[in-house]
Design goal:
The chain contains six helices and three strands, in the order H-H-H-H-H-E-E-E-H. It is mostly helical. It has two domains: 57 residues; 80 residues, no CATH class. Strands 1-2-3 form a three-stranded antiparallel β-sheet, with no helix packed on it. Strand 1 and strand 2 form a beta hairpin. The N and C termini lie far apart (60 Å).
């Protein structure tokens, strides 16, 4: 067994390092090695090709209780110590599910308040979107519209 494989497996087994994080880290290392190999700076076989640590667990995030969001987050009163822009970002995240980076990167032409259904359009204007499915229209209703 390659020394690097043994090191990662020991780290997962003995230290409790998450398999998903180990696989992500290995993916980063594999990308670097592959890039160097493609540039002909190394004369290596690609030792990481197809390698993944088995047993990866999916731990989905538990959503907030809807009542908690309605009574504590959406009114915005919990954020009195924050400036008004930061408070608005938190409220819009809670009301729409948009990512904070999508909110702060939103440009005026992408906000359609006069449309039949007021919305924001998430597009890769000045930045790359996180995923292919991130490009979408988000309706603005209730607190998000305000």
């Amino acid at each position: 067994m390659a020394w690097w494989l043994a090191w990662w497996l020991d780290r997962v087994r003995d230290v409790g390092y998450d398999q998903g994080l180990a696989n992500t880290d290995l993916g980063y290392i594999a990308t670097m090695v592959h890039t160097l190999e493609a540039a002909r700076l190394l004369k290596l076989s690609l030792p990481f090709k197809g390698f993944r640590i088995a047993g990866e667990k999916h731990n989905p995030r538990v959503p907030y209780d809807p009542d908690f969001v309605r009574t504590r987050i959406l009114p915005g009163t919990e954020f009195a110590s924050m400036n008004s822009e930061a408070c608005a970002v938190v409220v819009i995240v809670a009301a729409t599910g948009m990512r904070p980076s999508e909110i702060v990167g939103l440009t005026a032409p992408r906000i359609k308040l006069d449309a039949a259904i007021p919305r924001v359009e998430i597009r890769p204007d000045l930045r790359q979107l996180k995923t292919v499915h991130s490009q979408r229209n988000i309706p603005l209703v209730g607190r998000a519209l305000k």
